[in-house]
Design a protein that fits this description.
Bound molecules: zinc ion
Number of domains: 1
Shape: elongated
Strand order of the largest sheet: 1-2
Number of strands: 4
Strand content: 15-25%
Low-confidence stretches: none
Length: 78
């Protein structure tokens, strides 16, 4: 039996299925809720950043993941 914890909220992910209940970004494993937060946070920033460039996009994603891992939550601004 394998136990995987979300690297952001630290909750255990029951029955982890890659791409369905668990999502990998580099060394981070995310539960579905945190993956949704990550995507929402990325979308908010992408909207304000023009032109699109993959180099800052990748950095943004890693920054959000590292910050989220520290705070146990990916911050989505409203
Ligand atoms: Zn999580």
């Amino acid at each position: 039996m394998q136990f995987i914890h979300c690297d952001i909220c630290k909750k255990q992910i029951p029955n982890p299925i890659s791409g369905r209940t668990i999502f990998y970004h580099r060394e981070f494993a995310l539960c579905e809720a945190c993956k949704d937060d990550l995507e929402a946070a990325i979308k908010q920033t992408v909207r304000t950043k023009v032109p699109f460039d993959f180099s800052w996009y990748e950095k943004l994603r890693i920054d959000l993941l590292q910050e989220g891992a520290k705070k146990n939550k990916i911050v989505v601004k409203h």
